[in-house]
Amino acid sequence: MGRRNRNRQKNQQDRDGKSGGKDRDSAAWGAGYSEIIKENKLFEHYYQEQKIVPEGEFQQFMDTMREPLPATIRITGYKSHAKEILHCLKEKYFKDIQDLEIDGQRIEAPQPLSWYPDELAWHTNMSRKIIRKSPLLEKFHQFLVSETESGNISRQEAVSMIPPLLLKIEPHHKILDMCAAPGSKTAQLIEMLHSDMNVPFPEGFVIANDVDNKRCYLLVHQAKRLNSPCVMVINHDASSIPRFQVDSDGRKEVLFYDRILCDVPCSGDGTMRKNIDVWKKWTTSNSLQLHGLQLRIAVRGVEQLAVGGRMVYSTCSLNPIEDEAVIAALLEKSEGALELADASADLLGLKWMPGMTSWKVLMTKTGEWYTSWSEVPSSRHTQIRPTMFPPTDPEKLKEMKLERCMRILPHHQDTGGFFVAVLVKKAPMPWNRQYPKVPKPPPLPPYTHTGSAIQDVVIPPPSKKMKLFGFKEDPFVFLSEDDPVFAPIQAFYNLSPTFPKLNVLTRTHEGKKRNLYMVSKELRNVLLNNSEKMKVINTGVKVWSRNNDGEEFGCAFRLAQEGIYTLFPYIGARVVDISVEDIKVLLTQENPFLSKLESEAQAQAKKLTMGSIVLRYQPDAQNPGVPQCPIELCGWRGKASIRAFVPKNERFHYLRMVGVEMFLGKQGKGARGSGEAGESPTPPAEEARKVKAEEEGEAKVDEVSDGENGDPHDDGQSGDTEAAMQS
Q1: Cα separation, 449 vs 438, whole angstroms
Q2: Which residues define the annotated binding site?
Q3: Angle formed by the axes of helices 324-334 and 284-303, to 10°?
Q4: Which of 64, 288, 587, 612 has its CB 3.0 to 4.6 Å from that of 558, i.e. a possible disulfide?
Q5: Which residue numbers are catalytic?
Q6: Known binding site for S-adenosyl-L-methionine: residues?
Q7: Which DSSP symbol is given to 701?
Q8: Which fold would CATH assign to domain 158-179+238-430?
Q9: Where are the domains of the chain?
Q10: Distance (Å, whole) CA 520 – CA 193
Q11: Minimum mean pLDDT among 164-178, 186-200, 315-329, 568-582: which range?
């Protein structure tokens, strides 16, 4: 990669917590940060001159910027367990921590964000450092970590939650997230796509892109927590992301997106409360260097947006050079094809400042301010560009309605700083407007207007061999409907005739298929028609994994927990109904005897042969004291015992839902349970040995890697806890 591209990649990392490949949490509280002085005279001078803060509030603005950022959490809204998590938080954890005093600070009861729907996002007055370090908050911290790993909670900055809400996602939307890592906003998009949990395959999908190959794997880790078959992670430069094609009734058509999130690389001065090193690194040259890249990414976004579609442009910078200047340039280039939407009524309760209509450009080295392009000397034309200034034509400026942009100031609601603008595409972009060719005869000059509607006509560039960087991915190979792998699976699990076999893929061309994944029909279409031009990092949710000796039980593939909610609607056999008490037994004991289950579950299990099963809990509306959401767990029916194959953090999640609190001891050693007398997280060693002896011949389950060839970036998909549960 050339120097220019390396710099671009570096710039794209320096953003909303996207700097240097570091975790946003560790970036804020790493070693040595306590020595950083939270002073930057140039920063103060610059923003006083730009007048982004209302008169009389600047000192309050600066005081807030120096305070640690309070922690905020968001509950995963689409999962049926959201209400249970919310109930657990409100009735237990929030009550336990309120009125505590830590290091002289009184801990207040967390409050819901007034502008976030359904009380699914909460604001505390605790910093992440306090939550992580204080012994008094140990259980609360472990709860957050565990539920985050399970995909039920996201520890996300409040202002970061805004852009996905303004996109107004519906389940049929095709969505592009252009600069997606680390993935908190991507996760929101996925949640909104799956707003109806009764639909395993929404018509829409999310394509999440990032320029940095390594950060793409962080993105994969985030997305996998939600176990969606409608997500694809790709690795491209956002400013030149390829146009993809899809097959529509036998014809190739360009893929246009209904919704695009354009959360561009930025100087990140809105994150100073958390990313403390910005204080010493901040200079106006950062914005001058990023402006061109931001504009190119935004232009590429609107090119790929469908007419009638919606794109949200956002930064975690307060600088108008990165904010309003980019929007104004984009609107001017569009010649009326784009308009700023009025989003003032979309997030009631959110405090924001209207977009600016005038601003200046400061050259740091010389200390000179410029109010228009005409004032810039030719020697500065490489650093300062015409698009950095507000429009000079008052009528044009009025038509742009830049006041519809939204700037969130930290001191107004104790948040980070942020900028967001909502763009709606009214017509094709001017440079994409071509008229349809008229059929012969008679011959007409090309692009002659014939009265038909103007449309986007895209002639793809000649294909070039794509350069690959980073880890070489295993292939994505779709199975045919008559693949021999399906017959035993179909018979063993009594799959519905509507099961979409064509949506199943594996990650190897040769040898035994170790894992089977599923994607939605729409993503399959994208994959099959663009293999030459797109670099796919990951897609699909794992639904089956191969056993060592599974054939002797009738099927070589066991069910995978991460894909059970996608697969379960098609399964017609090998289902055992379990109660709350059964859940406690199955998730606290390694190999419980069948006799440990209640009579109904025991009777159903005894009718089944050995092998993979579904353990299903159905809520009882007449008993509000038990979880009021369905639960499906993957399990194994042995000779004399039954077990659940559920990752550790998910085990903790389900146990909390049924009243058994599990948490690690000091230094993370061992697990302790509370809330149920007599329960232990693992069976006595003697009982375990007895079960093992009685289950001779039971199939052991392969330890599974994500890629067929052992992907070094594999996160284990939280990994089924197979090793601990093998017979």
Answers
A1: 9
A2: 179-185, 210, 237, 263
A3: 30
A4: 612
A5: 316
A6: 179-185, 210, 237, 263
A7: B
A8: Rossmann fold (3.40.50)
A9: 71-155, 158-179+238-430, 574-663
A10: 12
A11: 186-200
